[in-house]
Each structure stands twice: as structure tokens, then as C-alpha cells.
Design goal:
This protein has 502 residues and is α+β, with helices and mostly antiparallel strands. The chain has helices at residues 18-27, 44-51, 71-84, 136-143, 162-168, 175-178, 181-184, 214-217, 254-265, 277-285, 294-297, 313-329, 344-355, 357-364, 379-392, 426-432, 435-442, 467-480, and strands spanning 6-7, 33-35, 64-66, 88-91, 108-111, 118-122, 127-131, 148-149, 185-191, 197-200, 226-233, 235-236, 240-248, 269-276, 302-310, 337-340, 366-373, 401-409, 414-421, 500-501. The protein folds into four domains: 6-113, 2-Layer Sandwich (Uridine Diphospho-n-acetylenolpyruvylglucosamine Reductase, domain 2), CATH 3.30.43.10; 118-236, Uridine Diphospho-n-acetylenolpyruvylglucosamine Reductase, domain 3, CATH 3.30.465.10; 240-357, 2-Layer Sandwich (Alpha-Beta Plaits); 365-463, 2-Layer Sandwich (Alpha-Beta Plaits), CATH 3.30.70. The strands form five sheets. Strands 16-13-15-14-18-19-17 form a seven-stranded antiparallel beta sheet, with helices on both faces. A five-stranded antiparallel beta sheet has the order 6-7-11-9-10. Strands 2-3-5-4 form a four-stranded mixed beta sheet, sandwiched between helices. The structure holds flavin-adenine dinucleotide, (2R)-2-hydroxypentanedioic acid (2HG) and zinc ion.
């Protein structure tokens, strides 16, 4: 397949001008406008968090960030931008890992952070309707006394927003239990690229009245409109949750272990997460969770974090203990040992190791992240082959690539291959791409399991989508956004709309 890189120049879009700013001042109060242009004149440093992504890998040069407080304000802003051909980057918590949430050049940033009201909750159906800017953790906290949980959990929960989660179709740590947002999101309210408000904020479980338009916005990465409201089916809170960190002598044991754990725990299994040894060591090095005892770690090639969630503590604990007993008794055993959390603090600490991996990678260096779907039995091969490839290029040393590690969501066939380097350099990138994408294509996998395409993988889309699919994606984009103002360059390029082949 041809590997084509797209230059990120968006020449035909208008930059925000003082005239535009004057118009935005009629829609928003001064506190909701951050701009380095006069008359607003915010110091450039205040725009930095909106111009730089979580990894500090992608950098924009936006002069203006707007923080609307209502759907009507979003609509008025977008309508104006469409008329003036101003490119817009919808932004949630800016925790995305593919550079989709920051400008490429000086596009206008519309940040949803000021739209954080919960609109309604029905404790019989469990249906929650919330503004798109609600932080995931706030929604979870809100639901605790109501005995429900958001059917989504991820390490970025303290900052990411439900609108961002929907727009990336985030997967996370419990997809195994609750399924994808394509199933749990019941309705959306979206401001379309011409400013029209599409109200599909239904709270119906069943609604087969023609095309299910909301599905198009789930995972659209802000290219078809700005999500302003979300209706989501929450789940009854489990009465009992347990977890155990299993240490495995060999990666080859992961797949048989997964089968056995599923067989024995069946309906109470809620997470099955894989961490390779190098990733674990980095988590511990950077203080994520409490390190396991040496004897638990000795001889471990990798770890698996298993969680159960159910409605009867005694029953669940009995099942989990029985599983551990059976595993330990088997000869040879699939596991070396297991650390079972016996207190809420230990439960949280085991999760902290897993959830803290992303942060640990960033503390260790600059992480090249490949969020891929490949057959489970190929996880290790992908990690090892990538490491050897980098070694053969002379790049595996402390001044270039420091570590090649893997972790991820086994139940979803989703590996997070992380290449941790001293710096982001064109040489390392050229060694990794298209190498990793070709490897993924060889296994008929996906180059993006859950993080999206963003700006990072626009050019690599053909590795996972055939030309007919891409053509229809482009047609949909053109239909919704004929002027191409919504998050241009990510993840679908539009003909004649500014992206040129290098
Ligand atoms: P942003 O980063 O602000 O935006 C992401 C994309 O969505 C951009 O393209 C943006 O334009 C668009 N967007 C945002 N809000 C809107 C809106 N209201 N309307 C239209 N478009 C919008 N991802 C996973 O899938 N699983 C994980 O387990 C996971 N763990 C993570 C752990 C850490 C520590 C970090 C830093 C990230 C993790 N991520 C994970 C990636 C990221 O958190 C998710 O993609 C998240 O859903 C992004 O939400 P956000 O509000 O930060 O969106
Ligand atoms: C996770 O599963 C996230 O922890 C982030 O999706 C993955 O750090 C990564 O590469
Ligand atoms: Zn993940």
C-alpha cells in the first residue's frame, strides 16, 4: 500500500480577525473568550494548554479559544465560522492521544469546558442526559449515591469530557463488561457545521425509525459537528468489586488464562488487562500504585489485572478464590502468583498500576503510541518485532529509543504498543512508520483500536480502510461539512480542501 504523508497546510481557511472577535463578543461574555488579538489580548501563555496536546507532541498556533455556555451559543459561533470559512477545532478535556484536539495551524478552538450541567437522570431506566462538557469523573461521582455507574472508565477520567469520549468512541478499561459507546449512547445533541442544531437527544431504549444518525458522530472526532449533549444508558452499580494482579511466567499463557478466567468467572468478569514486564517496571519506577512484593514479580514476563463486579460479595469472592486455587494447583500453572486485593486501598492501588501506565510512559520520555487491534496471540510478536526492528536501525539505545513496551485490553484484542524515546525525532518516526502499520495490516488488524485517527494517522487510514470505505467516509464528510471547517485534516482529508501530498 502506498504510504502517503499529508502536509498540514490549510491555506483556504480564514484566520480569526478582530472583526470576528467583535462578533464573538456579542455572543459570549469576555470571560468566555481567550484571544491574543485585540481588544481581548489574553497573554499567549494562557492559550498554551489549548494549543498543545496531552503528550506535548502536537502543537497549534490558535489565537482564539471560545468557551460557550450553551448549545445556542455554540450554534451562533459555528454559524458565523461557516459563513466566514473559519476552521474550528472542537475541544473537550484535551486528553486525546492522536493530536485531534489541538489546531494544526491557527484554527479557532471551541472548548466545551463551560458546558458541564447534568440535564436529567432517571433512576428507573438509568438514563443520564448531560452537557457534552461534563468531566467523566464528575458524572461517575454524581451517580455514586444514585447507585449507578457510567458504562465507561479510563485513566483520563479526571479530565476527559463525555462529549470527547463520544467523539472518540473511547473504549477504556471496562468495554469487556459494558460494551462500546455505540451501544450505550442513546441520543446526541449536535451543532452541525452550518450552525443547525440536530436534536437527537432521545431517552428511548428502542427507536427504529430510519437511519440512526447519532452513530455517525460517535467516533467522528469532531469532523461532522460539535456534540453538545449526550444521553447515555448507565448501569446499576455493582455491589461488590474485587481485583487480582496475576503474574505470568510467559506471554503464551495469556490466551489460555483468558479462556480459563472467562470460563470460571463468567458473568462477574468485568476487566482483563494485560501489562508486560517492562511496562510494569516503568509504572513502579514512576510511582504508579504500590509495587508488588519481589517474590510476586520474580520470573514474571507479564501481568494480568482481573476485575470482578457483581451483586453478591460472598458469591463473587468464592468464585475468585476458587479460580486462584485452581490456577495455582494446575501443573504446570499458567500463573506464578496472584495478588488479591483485600481492602479498598489495595483494590485502588492495583488499578493505579494499570491506569498509571500512560503517565509513567510520559514521565520516562516521549512516547510514540500505537493503539492497535491485532489477534491476541500476536501481541508479543508485534512488541518484539518492533523492538528488533529499532535495534537493527541502530536506534535502540538510551539517547534514542529507551523502551518498547506493551499493555492493553486483552478482551478487546487491543494492544497499546508504546515506544518510549528520548525525544520525538523524524528519524525514529521514519523507522516506526509505516513499519508498524504494515505489521498491523499483515495481521488484518486496525491501526486505531480506540484512540482514533486524529492528525497522527490521517495518512495511514488506507492500512485499515479500503478505498471504497474511505470514499464513502469522504462523501459523508462533504455532505455534512461542504466548506470543510470542522477539524480539518483530521481524520478525513477533503479533496481540494487544503491538504497536499508531500
Ligand atoms: P479531546 O482530547 O479534547 O478531543 C478528542 C477528539 O474529540 C478531538 O478530535 C476533538 O476535536 C473531538 N471532540 C472533543 N470534544 C468534542 C465535542 N464535544 N464535539 C465534537 N468533537 C469533540 N482512550 C481510550 O479510548 N481508552 C482509554 O483507556 C484511554 N485512556 C487514556 C488514559 C490517559 C492517561 C490519557 C491521557 C488518555 C487516554 N485515552 C483513552 C485517550 C482519551 O482520553 C480519550 O480519547 C478521551 O475520550 C478524549 O476525551 P477528551 O474530552 O479529552 O477529548
Ligand atoms: C490505556 O488503555 C489508554 O491506558 C492509553 O488507552 C494507552 O498509553 C497508551 O498508549
Ligand atoms: Zn486503552
Amino acid at each position: 500500500r502506498p504510504f502517503r504523508r499529508w502536509t498540514h497546510s490549510l491555506p483556504q481557511y480564514s484566520s480569526v480577525s478582530e472583526v470576528d472577535l467583535a462578533h464573538f463578543s456579542k455572543i459570549l461574555p469576555p470571560s468566555a473568550i481567550l484571544s491574543t488579538l485585540s481588544p481581548s489580548i489574553t497573554p499567549a501563555s494562557e492559550l498554551e494548554p489549548f494549543n498543545n496536546d496531552w503528550m506535548n507532541k502536537y502543537h497549534g498556533r490558535s489565537t482564539t479559544v471560545l468557551k460557550p455556555r450553551s448549545t445556542k451559543e455554540v450554534s451562533e459561533i459555528v454559524k458565523w465560522c461557516n459563513q466566514r470559512r473559519i476552521a474550528v477545532v472542537p475541544q473537550g478535556g484535551n486528553t486525546g492521544l492522536v493530536g485531534g484536539s489541538v489546531p494544526i495551524q491557527d484554527e479557532l478552538v471551541v472548548n466545551l469546558g463551560n458546558m458541564s450541567n447534568i440535564r436529567s437522570f432517571d433512576d428507573a431506566s438509568g438514563i443520564l442526559v448531560a452537557d457534552a462538557g461534563c468531566i467523566l469523573q464528575s458524572l461517575s461521582d454524581y451517580l455514586v449515591p444514585l447507585n449507578h455507574v457510567v458504562p465507561l472508565d479510563l485513566g483520563a477520567k479526571g479530565s476527559c469530557q463525555i462529549g470527547g469520549n463520544v467523539s472518540t468512541n473511547a473504549g477504556g478499561l471496562r468495554l469487556l463488561r459494558y460494551g462500546s459507546l455505540h451501544g450505550s449512547v442513546l441520543g446526541l445533541e449536535v451543532v452541525l457545521p452550518d450552525g443547525t442544531i440536530l436534536d437527537q437527544l432521545t431517552t428511548l431504549r428502542k427507536d427504529n425509525t430510519g437511519y440512526d444518525l447519532k452513530q455517525l458522530f460517535i467516533g467522528a472526532e469532531g469532523t461532522l459537528g460539535i456534540v453538545t449533549g449526550v444521553s447515555i444508558l448507565t448501569a446499576a452499580a455493582p455491589h461488590a468489586s474485587n481485583n487480582v494482579m496475576l503474574s505470568l511466567p510467559a506471554f503464551d499463557n495469556v490466551l489460555p488464562l483468558y479462556k480459563e478466567v472467562k470460563r470460571q468467572l463468567s458473568e462477574i468478569l468485568s476487566a482483563f488487562e494485560f501489562i508486560d514486564r517492562r511496562a510494569y517496571d516503568l509504572a513502579v519506577k514512576h510511582g504508579q500504585g504500590r509495587a508488588l512484593d519481589d517474590r510476586e514479580v520474580e520470573g514474571a514476563e507479564c501481568f494480568v489485572l482481573v476485575e470482578t463486579s457483581g451483586s453478591n460479595r460472598e458469591h463473587d469472592e468464592e468464585k475468585l478464590n476458587k479460580l486462584l486455587e485452581n490456577l495455582m494447583e494446575e501443573e504446570p500453572s499458567l500463573i506464578n502468583s496472584g495478588v488479591l486485593a483485600t481492602s479498598p486501598a489495595q483494590f485502588a492501588s492495583l488499578w493505579a498500576i494499570r491506569e498509571g501506565l500512560t503517565e509513567a510512559m510520559s514521565k520516562e520520555g516521549k512516547a510514540y503510541k500505537y493503539d492497535i487491534s491485532v489477534p491476541l496471540h500476536k501481541f508479543k510478536e508485534v512488541i518484539d518485532t518492533t523492538r528488533e526492528h529499532l535495534r537493527s536501525k541502530g536506534l535502540l539505545h538510551p539517547d534514542a529509543v529507551k523502551h518498547v513496551v506493551g499493555y492493553g485490553h486483552v478482551g478487546d484484542g487491543n494492544l497499546h504498543l508504546n515506544v518510549v524515546a528520548e525525544a520525538y525525532t523524524p528519524e525514529i518516526e521514519a523507522a516506526l512508520e509505516p513499519f508498524v502499520y504494515e505489521l498491523v495490516a499483515k495481521y488484518k488488524g486496525s491501526i486505531s483500536a480506540e484512540h482514533g485517527i486524529g492528525v497522527m494517522k490521517t495518512h495511514a487510514l488506507p492500512y485499515s480502510k479500503n478505498s471504497v470505505s474511505i470514499e464513502w467516509m469522504r462523501k459523508i464528510k462533504n455532505l455534512f461539512d461542504p466548506n470543510g471547517i470542522m477539524n480539518p485534516g483530521k481524520p478525513i482529508f477533503q479533496d481540494g480542501n487544503g491538504l497536499a501530498i508531500k
